[in-house]
Amino acid sequence: MAGAELIGNEEMKEVMDVLETGVFMRYGFDKERKGIFKVKQFEEEFAQYCGSTYALGVTSGSSALKVALAAMGVGPGDEVIVPAFTFVATWEAVLEVGAIPVMGDIDATLNLDPADIERKLTPYTKAVIPVHMCGAMAHIDQIVAVAKKHNLLVLEDNAQGCGGSFKGRKLGTFGDMGIFSFDYYKTITTGEGGMVLTDNKEYAWRADEYHDHGHDHNPAVTRAMEGRHILGFNYRMNELQGALGLAQLRKLDTVCAEQVKNKTKIKGFLSRVKEVGLREIPDPAGDTATFLAFNLPTEELAAKFQKSLAAGGVDTVCFKANKWHYAPNWEHMMARSTANPKQYPFTDPSYRGKVIYDRKDIPQAEDLLGRTLVMGISVKMTDERIAQIKAAVEKAAQEL
Predict the structure, then answer these.
(1) Residues 8-19: what's their mean pLDDT?
(2) pLDDT > 80? residue 293
């Protein structure tokens, strides 16, 4: 459960600062808030932590995706290459801005395969969304290189990898824009909430205005009297979320370090099982260690190993059977049943392509996810819990 495990006095102190002002909205009421601007401070400290120029707090990681896509100008008539293995929100956000998601295959990292981008390219491809799933990075350098070669925009979905890095550079800063999620299960949490990062000034101001009904946030003019350049909507992070985020951000490195320590122990047990292989991680030093993914030679052996682990009190997930994180399992998506009864944007006449969702187009995902098991790694794991996992792994190995 990552950052949620460490909620304590630090979070309470930051939240009390807000409660004492009675101002929960991030904008306006300057006199009443007495200098307390938690979301603004969180944005500044988060941008500094990641080494990014601009940061924008929003209501969720899902809304962060939509805000970023809108800021980059992705919309009707466009295709966006999205991995088959991701949370459904990545695809939903593409549809929300009127574009069409194209199903990309994964590689041994369990993330988007850079080579599949060129296989899925069409004249309508506008952007690619690499997702750093389960806390570890994609081949992000290769993905960015392929995207630049074909003049594609890159939006990094780093909802599950906050605090992770690749060759010393924080994940979420490689693309044109990057997003983060702070829901209850993420590396750090604000209950809900998300963040958008970019070094692009134009994208930053478009995101800023879009997330707040088009307000241009001119400090010389009182709120509701500002000008507007574009239409927007309400995706504002509130001050209570910002307060929690500040306290959690200061614990982020500790969260990752403790998870790395625990994951290393469990990897040691698994590495002694000859049938088990470990997920490829392009830069192990940048792993958040939120999850441990390992594979077996066949789906049948994976299922047998999973059942034995469960009997020993150790739960794992096989994402090929998961209903929220594997595109071919989304019955509404496969039926193109969008929120609009007219099935927009699939029926939008401005879209001239012909997207097809077929498991045969993602052979590596079909193979890897069926025989891969994923175990959650906690920040706090007692010696007794580690010993229980060790015993369960050893017993499962004997039963293969």
Answers:
(1) 98
(2) yes
Residue 337 belongs to some domain of the structure: no
257 in the same domain as 368: yes
Is there a domain that residue 189 lies in? yes
Q: Is residue 340 part of a domain?
A: no
User: In this structure, is residue 225 part of a structural domain?
Assistant: yes
DSSP H or E segment with residue 198: strand 194-198
102 and 8 in a common domain: yes
Instruction: Name the pairing type of β-strands 54-58 and 277-278.
Output: unpaired
Domain boundary among 252, 268, 288: 252
> CA-CA distance, 142 to 262, in Å (whole number)?
30
pLDDT, tens digit, 9 for 90 and up, residues 172-202: 999 999 999 999 999 999 999 999 999 999 9
Three-state SS at 72: coil
Instruction: Identify whether residues 87 and 28 lie together within a single domain.
Output: yes
Is 166 in contact with 51 (CB distance < 8 Å)?
no
Q: Answer whether 179's CB lies under 8 Å from 237's CB.
A: no
Considering the domain architecture, whether residues 247 and 380 belong to the same structural domain is answered as no
CB atoms within 10 A of CB 328: 18
Token output for 17? 């600062």
Q: What is the pLDDT of residue 220?
A: 87
Question: Which of 158, 167, 187 minimizes the C-alpha distance to 55?
Answer: 158
HSE-CB for 319 with a 13 A CA cutoff? 28
- Give the end-to-end CA distance of the chain in Å, rounded to a whole number: 30
pLDDT in tens, 245-290: 999 999 999 999 999 999 999 999 999 999 999 999 999 999 999 9
**What is the reported pTM?**
0.97
Q: How far is CA 125 from CA 120, 150, 172, 353, in A?
A: 9, 9, 21, 10
Active site positions, annotated: 186
Is the domain of 295 the same as that of 162? no
Nearest to residue 90, comparing CAs of 348, 330, 364?
A: 330
The secondary structure element, H or E, covering residue 247 is: helix 239-249
Structural domain boundaries enclosing 68: 2-252
Task: Name the β-bridge partners of 191.
Answer: 183
Specify whether 391 is located in the same domain as 298: yes
